[in-house]
Amino acid sequence: MYRDEFLNKKISDRIANQSVRSLRILESMMDFSSNDYLGIATQNLLSDRELDFLWNAGAKGSRLLSGNYPLIETVEKQIALFHSADAGLIFNAGYDANIGLLASVPQKGDTILYDQLSHASLRDGIRLSFAQSFSFLHNNLEDLERLLKKATGNIFIVTESVFSMDGDMIDLPLMVELAEKYQAHIIVDEAHATGIIGEKGEGLVQSKGYQQKIFARIHTFGKALGCHGAIVLGSTLLRNYLVNYARPFIYSTALPPSSIAAVQKSYALFPTFTEQRNHLNNLIQYFQSANCGFQILPSITPIQIVLIPGNEAVRNIATALQAEKFDIRAILYPTVPKNTERLRITLHAFNTMKELTVLLALLNQLSK
Ligand SMILES: Cc1ncc(COP(=O)(O)O)c(C=O)c1O
């Protein structure tokens, strides 16, 4: 018998406030929930018979020991070139990249200022750092400036370009202006912008031409790219620093060649997906201009938010939508602040206008 009864105390707290999480598999549903925005994973566009020999082989070690290999170095260079960065270092996941970067670069005496809606991986990295840290109000540059005035040491501003839980974007030019005024370094997590924002899906920073003004960009491979892993882009010195100090990079087995080959293939594919991005934009505009009966947040990205306050209320609506074969998930408190519980609907290049019309009608019906 496992002696694990003590774990029940915190699980019961979750049950009491209706926020207990469990793993589920929803099959044969219309996907309005995954991050596979372009359909690369769903449509199995990365399978490759020529690369079969790579499948199932591990990297055999961490990159600094026996796990480095030519393909991973080549792909790092190719991705850095695509994103107009001097260098890039691949991590096993976006989570690892954010932890590795933030826990190792800012030092004691430095200051990290981060958007209050920053992803858990950014916040966990910040918690591991010895620098002091303060959050600023979501997307609020006045609040950021208030904190910049008091900041000491090297200053880091941490933000997402497209926010994962709200779907909105930062005002990058104004943020860069502010950072320059206070000589701060900007770190941008482009997880939900990669593949989506910009003519080729190059991300927000590059689409605005600010790549030389950003200290570090994180592009993840698990969302629109349909793969797994992430890269930190920046200077060659930053890459060298991370190789020496980023613990998730140093103390973990490298991604296998099969994963890296898939990432390479996805980078050859997604920039050409102009039609898919156009269709996605049409779906986004349609969703934003329609009346679904509930309050929605403004968003020009595939992440669309329908606010339904209360864990029970939002869960009931999600269950009703799932009964109609729509894979849509409720985002509950404490993942989001109380009274901002929501449906997080993600739109994909493979969703049809017809599906969206039915979904909007269903939401309208459920709102009454
Ligand atoms: C903004 C953001 N950053 C980082 C991550 C973590 O990326 P990964 O799933 O590759 O660990 C996520 C994924 O949920 C995310 O939404």
What does this structure look like?
Helix content is 36%, strand content 15%. By secondary structure, it is α/β, with parallel strands linked by helices. The mean pLDDT is 95. The protein is built from 13 helices and 13 strands. It folds into 2 domains: 125 residues, Aspartate Aminotransferase, domain 1; 223 residues, 3-Layer(aba) Sandwich (Aspartate Aminotransferase, domain 2), CATH 3.40.640. Helix 2 packs parallel to helix 10 and helix 3 packs parallel to helix 4. The strands form 3 sheets. Strands 2-8-7-6-5-3-4 form a 7-stranded mixed β-sheet, with helices on both faces. Strands 9-10-13-12 form a 4-stranded antiparallel β-sheet. Strands 1-11 form a two-stranded parallel sheet. It binds pyridoxal-5'-phosphate (PLP). The site of pyridoxal-5'-phosphate has 14 residues, from helix 3.
What does the secondary structure layout of this molecule look like, with pairings?
Layout: H1 8-16, E1 30-31, H2 70-82, E2 87-91, H3 94-104, E3 111-115, H4 120-128, E4 132-136, H5 141-148, E5 155-160, H6 172-181, E6 184-189, H7 204-207, E7 216-220, E8 230-234, H8 236-245, H9 247-250, H10 257-269, H11 274-289, E9 295-296, E10 303-307, H12 311-323, E11 326-327, E12 329-331, E13 342-346, H13 353-366
Parallel strand pairs: 1-11, 3-4, 3-5, 5-6, 6-7
Antiparallel strand pairs: 2-8, 7-8, 9-10, 10-13, 12-13
The structure holds pyridoxal-5'-phosphate (PLP).
